[in-house]
Design brief:
Number of domains: 1
Oligomer: single chain
Number of strands: 26
Helix content: 10-25%
CATH class: Mainly Beta
Distance between the termini: 51 Å
Length: 514
């Protein structure tokens, strides 16, 4: 299979034209589970950010502190609804040390305990998880109804108790350490302690350098990413990116500012034996995963990103110098498939009252451009009512039959039992709609519905319908409540004609911010 276009070459050309600014201070990243992302999206949608957040997450605390200052400045001339002003105050409190550092009146905090969370969940399902191991695609991965953005965690049957914490901050002047341990108990696992995230971050000039484990989300989707999302266990990686966006000079200055992210990780050491156990014949232990992404903000209301992620190498599958030259330009012979690529672009445009976003990625190439493409298109209406108290998000996504599968890496686009990309899998389409109501400064509710057709070309294709209700409330000054109640129905479950399964999930989470 020929592979996707090389955005790596484009990124390198543009990087050479960056006008480097003075290196900022190193700050940690805001965990993807943080409510701060919701606040930033809402402020952007309501027109209180003068720059566009990009599609490369997580954002750093420095990024969010700058957006918070932008919103505070614009709010002085454009009064905010009470609920939105409350969100801004919460951001100011959360990011106060970084804001003080930007203003020259203080510095970011040393290593400390930032949050403790306690979740109680109850799952009642005909089957706990479902796979992609149909006759068409033998990918050794699974997914769980009503469980999105989970960092690879799977709820056990019946009761679940999950205790988490976030510890992060500077150690020294130019180094940040972040740890997110998790202790969980359910009848399936009988107790498990793990490090959900953990990394060390420093800098070399204008670049941040990170080593450790953390989730990445590259794309614009509300329900997932076609190429690299957070439904899987976080990769252990080395990552390099600009500590803050840089202005592009020279011929490409019309592209505005850019941030380039590059990471390298190794996949499981038992991929070959997993492939054999799954009825396949080939894969490579310790295969590498190399990701390159360039985000651009040409104007105050537009951002787009170019991404290429390559699964390559592994034991007995090393690349020669000429192979690396072919990889750089996206050339891969039909009879010597040395790597598995997904590449393409995503974008977001902010109109008054609505944002349009989308993704277009290819699993193949024709004329060095992505082909056999998958798409996502979405609309975000942050102001269904004048004050934005009502908002709506709707999304459609589709993959083709070849997606997440491969002839040489036969475990497919997977890691540790989950897909690297969108959990809907190959040959699928998804429809989503979500409505949110901001009740007051401390309370909001959401209603969501999603329909997924999985492996549509099969006679017994799975059809998933999910409905869930969410509730969030600030109980006290530093105590937050999150609740969720969902119901899922799966027709032709397990690709068995006429088999209908149901799943129910209820969860309540308390968060204490320090």
């Amino acid at each position: 299979m020929k592979k996707a276009v090389s955005v790596a070459f484009v990124a390198c050309m543009l990087g050479a034209n960056v006008a480097y600014a003075a290196a900022p201070k190193v700050t940690g990243n805001v965990p993807l589970s943080s409510v701060c992302y919701e606040y930033i999206e809402k402020l952007s949608g309501m027109g209180y950010l003068s720059s566009m957040p990009t599609g490369a997450k997580p954002y750093s605390r420095l990024d969010m502190a700058k957006w918070t200052l932008e919103a505070k400045k614009l709010a002085a001339a454009k009064p905010m609804p009470a609920y939105l002003a409350s969100y801004l105050k919460q951001l100011e409190k959360e990011l106060a040390p970084e804001i003080a550092e930007l203003n020259g009146t203080g510095k970011a905090e040393d290593f400390k305990l930032r949050e403790v969370s306690l979740e109680f969940a109850y799952a009642d399902a005909d089957q706990n998880t479902y796979g992609y191991n149909s006759t068409a695609h033998k990918i050794p991965a699974d997914w769980q109804p009503l469980n999105n953005h989970s960092n690879g965690y799977r709820y056990g049957a019946d009761g679940n108790v999950i205790l988490g914490a976030e510890l992060s901050g500077r150690i020294g002047n130019e180094t940040v350490v972040s740890l997110i341990p998790r202790l969980s108990y359910d009848e399936d696992q009988n107790g498990k302690a793990s490090l959900s995230e953990g990394y060390i971050k420093t800098r070399v000039g204008a670049f941040g350098v990170e080593v450790g484990k953390q989730p990445l989300f590259w794309g614009q989707g509300a329900t997932g990413s076609l190429v690299l999302g957070d439904d899987m266990k976080p990769l252990t990686m080395a990552k390099v990116n600009f500590l803050e966006p840089q202005k592009i000079g020279g011929f490409f200055k019309f592209l505005g500012t850019t941030n380039i992210n590059v990471f390298y990780s190794e996949l499981e050491g038992n991929r070959a034996s997993k492939a054999i156990a799954n009825g396949d014949t080939l894969d490579y232990n310790n295969a590498g995963l190399l990701g390159i992404r360039s985000d651009f903000v040409p104007s105050a209301n537009f951002t787009f990103g170019l991404t290429r992620v390559s699964m390559l190498g592994g034991d007995g599958n090393g690349l020669s110098i000429s192979d690396w030259c072919d990889w750089l330009v996206g050339k891969n012979a039909d009879d010597d498939d040395l790597w598995n690529d997904i590449a393409g672009f995503d974008f977001r445009y902010r109109f008054p009252g609505v944002q349009v976003y989308g993704e277009l990625y290819g699993e193949d190439q024709a004329g060095y451009l992505p082909s056999k493409t998958a798409e996502r298109i979405g609309l975000y209406f942050p102001q269904l009512s004048k004050d934005g108290a009502w908002e709506l998000k709707t999304e459609y996504a589709k993959t083709k039959n070849c997606w997440y599968d491969h002839g040489a890496f036969q475990d497919g686009w997977s890691y540790d039992g989950a897909l690297l990309g969108d959990a809907m899998g190959p040959d699928a389409q998804k429809f989503y709609v979500g409505v949110k109501r901001h009740l007051n400064a401390d309370e909001r509710i959401g209603f969501n519905a999603m329909h997924v057709d999985m492996e549509r070309s099969l006679a017994a294709a799975q059809q998933l319908d999910e409905f869930w209700f969410s509730y969030e409330r600030q109980l006290e000054k530093d105590v937050y409540l999150e609740a969720m109640l969902g119901l899922a129905k799966l027709d032709n479950a397990g690709f068995a004609n006429g088999r209908d399964d149901t799943s129910c999930l209820a969860s309540v989470t308390l968060r204490w911010r320090m």
